[in-house]
Amino acid sequence: MQTMLPRDTAPPPVTLSRAFWYWLKLGFISFGGPAGQIAMMHTELVERRRWISEQRFLHALNYCMLLPGPEATQLAVYIGWLMHRTRGGIIAGALFVLPSLLLLMLLSWIYLAYGSLPVVAGTLYGIKPAVVAIVLAAAWRIGTRSLRNPAMIAIAIAAFLAIAVVGLPFPAIVLAAAVIGLTGGRAWPHLFQVGGATLDSKASYGLAIIDDITPTPAHARFSPKHLLKVALIGGGLGAAVWLLLASRYGASHTLAQMGWFFTKAAMLTFGGAYAVLPYVYQGGVEQYHWLTATQMIDGLALGETTPGPLIMIVAFVGFVGGWTHALFGTDSLLLAGVAGAAVAAFFTFLPSFIFILAGGPLVESTRGNVRMTAPLTAISAAVVGVIVSLALFFGQHVFFVDGRIDWPAVAISAAACIALFRFKTGTIKLIAACALAGLMLSYWNG
């Protein structure tokens, strides 16, 4: 049991060993997608343990929302780095990712080896409508923190229309939101303050180890030399692994293609897991044919049942691609799947570590500067609209079969929405209930 300290007394410094065990625990229990994981980190690190203040937490979060890649993973890396330097960031990020990677490899193998069994098919039938509700709930939860005024709501609506109706690429939407934030932060700074003007971490939770007034640690002070060093080391590591794959198997081999594709996915897509999925769908299904559209939706359903970052669905894409292409022959399908999943995960997450470890000091230097943080606030609002558009995207695939409405799927999704929004049901309980409903419907119709 953790001793409760007075709110005007900061907790004692946290050792790296203690942080290690926290990040390992988080890796195994962080269900609910990025919104749930961010909320879980906030509850534990800001409210209960008081390792970091809410303003600094939100400042880091908005930077991670700006970056391409999984924002929950990047937030874990950022906090780990801020508290325990580079090794703390690497430990936090690795432990946040590793449990979900191993578990999703196992689920991918079960899916491919036994997916035709009625029990597996029925389970997935019930989970997929729940995924649509979970994505909508994620938009709501992030929106309640980001859409603090009419200006932010307008940005979110404009982002939804831009991607869902006009079809603009997400990088263009992020750029537009950043420009709006940069301009609005100068003209109406009160509308673009990070997290809203009413937040006061000391009044709400008490003093934190890394509080609003805590001086920036020496390792977190910006240095162009440090930025260049980390960028070169990280970029060199990624290039070395890709060149090893290309020299061993050829540049046109599936593993080398995966390395290059998932590097682009990590570098060119913004807004975290929900925003990157349409890009992964386009490449994995339509361009390289590593998997089918149905398998992609099934992969997202499996991803929602595992802890860790939702973007770990790339491991499912890599696993299925390696398996279906029989990279090492028909007698080594499992090995091919594991290789594909490992390559996809490595090249997807490596840039996230580089972005944080290299750019974190620059972000720390902008704390308290509304003109610098306003673009991040506007981008956070835009991401809400994109997540809603993703729910629409998945709903089209889940609720319509051969041009007809699948009413049982609609009913499951509606019930899941009620459970999430009205009764605040946990993700795991919800998925278990929907999986059971899918099984019952499968046996009823079979």
UniProtKB/TrEMBL annotation:
Main location: membrane
Membrane-spanning intervals of the chain: 20-40, 90-114, 120-140, 152-182, 227-246, 258-281, 310-328, 334-363, 375-399, 428-444
InterPro entries recorded: Chr_Tranpt_l_chain, Chromate_transpt
Bilayer topology term: Multi-pass membrane protein
GO-annotated molecular function: chromate transmembrane transporter activity
Any one of the GO CC terms: plasma membrane
Top-rank taxon, per record: Bacteria
Entry keyword annotation includes Chloroplast: no
Keyword Membrane in annotation: yes
Keywords carried by this UniProt record: Cell membrane, Membrane, Transmembrane, Transmembrane helix
Protein localization: Cell membrane
Similarity section: Belongs to the chromate ion transporter (CHR) (TC 2.A.51) family.
PANTHER family assigned: CHROMATE ION TRANSPORTER (EUROFUNG)
Protein name: Chromate efflux transporter
